[in-house]
Amino acid sequence: MTQVTVEAPVPLTALSRWYLYAIHGYFCEVMFTAAWEFVVNCNWKFPGVTSVWALFIYGTCILIVERMYLTLRGRCPALLRCIIYTLWTYLWEFGTGFLLRQFNACPWDYTEFRYNFMGLITAEYAVPWFCASFIVERFVIRRTLRLRFHEGPEDGWSKHRLNAVDGGVSLGTGGRELRNNANGYLKVE
């Protein structure tokens, strides 16, 4: 009888979390611009737009907000944390926009807004950035930090498949069968 140890699931890597945050930010940017186009111009086509630069900008910004969250939780209330995240977002938006502008690659221009600074940031977006910060902390970061990589019989990718009827795990091919033991090991028969 051979026992197979199932490794404990491991947290996502920083690169994996960055990827999820980048996709989240990219998607939200497209949805926000589509909604904005509808509200301002009553455009029923909902054309949402963004730039590929948004992947890097949002992924990195939210990964840094994640670090802030891990440091600040338990030390200050959510309202204050979201204000800090909003200020960070403005700083990050200005910095990345300023850098991209040096190469004529900045995808946004807020010069038409009344309270803009150099066309790179605008005070009119303070409430949306604050709300986005709250959503990112409460839903995106917290849930992403709970995600785990898991390799083994129940990962959905290996040759093993969970047999829900008898609690065992059977191989996709071959005559051997794996069974769960009470001690946490898998028993190969």
Shape field: globular
Total DSSP E strands: 9
What are the low-pLDDT stretches, counting only 5+ consecutive residues below 50? Answer: 160-166, 168-189
Rg, nearest Å = 23 Å
Measured distance between first and last alpha carbons: 7 Å
- The pLDDT mean sits at 84
Secondary-structure-derived class: alpha+beta
Briefly say what this structure is:
The protein has 189 residues and is an alpha+beta fold.
Lay out the secondary structure.
Elements: E1 2-5, E2 10-11, H1 14-41, H2 53-72, H3 78-101, E3 116-117, E4 121-122, H4 126-146, E5 148-149, E6 160-162, E7 169-171, E8 177-180, E9 185-188
Antiparallel strand pairs: 1-9, 2-5, 3-4, 6-7, 7-8, 8-9
Helix pairs in contact: 1-2, 1-4, 2-3, 3-4
